[in-house]
Amino acid sequence: MAIARTTLTCTICGKSFEIRKECFNRTQADEYIEWATKHIDTCPECYKAAMQSAEDEQIAVYHLPELTGSEKQIKWATSIRRECVVQLDE
């Protein structure tokens, strides 16, 4: 077992972040590092913010009401809402 680990820089906020993945051997780990440096350019926080923004835009298109409840309830309801919006778009 080999671990692919590399440090990348976010193109949005400029922050450095580490990518880590377990691979079967060193060759696969090196290939993953090469792939990651070419394809991953956003830190997890900026990626999450971008996904939230896209989700907010979808909700605005369908004029869905703001969710209320506990943080856990809102998270659960949002995931259900996201699945429904995807089905509607198809």
Largest sheet: 2 strands, antiparallel
Question: Uncertain runs with pLDDT below 50, 5 residues or more?
Answer: none
Which percent bin holds the helix content? Answer: 55-70%
- Amino-to-carboxy terminus distance: 41 Å
User: What is the tally of beta strands?
Assistant: 2
Strand order of the largest sheet: 1-2
Quick check: average pLDDT? 89
* Count of individual domains: 2
Over all CA atoms, what is the radius of gyration? 18 Å
* Alpha-beta content class: alpha+beta
What oligomeric state do the depicted chains represent? single chain
β-sheet strand percentage: 15-25%
Number of helices: 3
Q: Which H/E pattern describes the elements?
A: EEHHH
Task: Pick out its properties.
about 90 residues, alpha+beta, two-stranded antiparallel sheet, about 20% strand
Compact summary:
Helices cover 58% and strands 18% of the residues. With 90 residues, the protein is α+β, with helices and mostly antiparallel strands. The chain has a two-stranded antiparallel sheet with strand order 1-2.
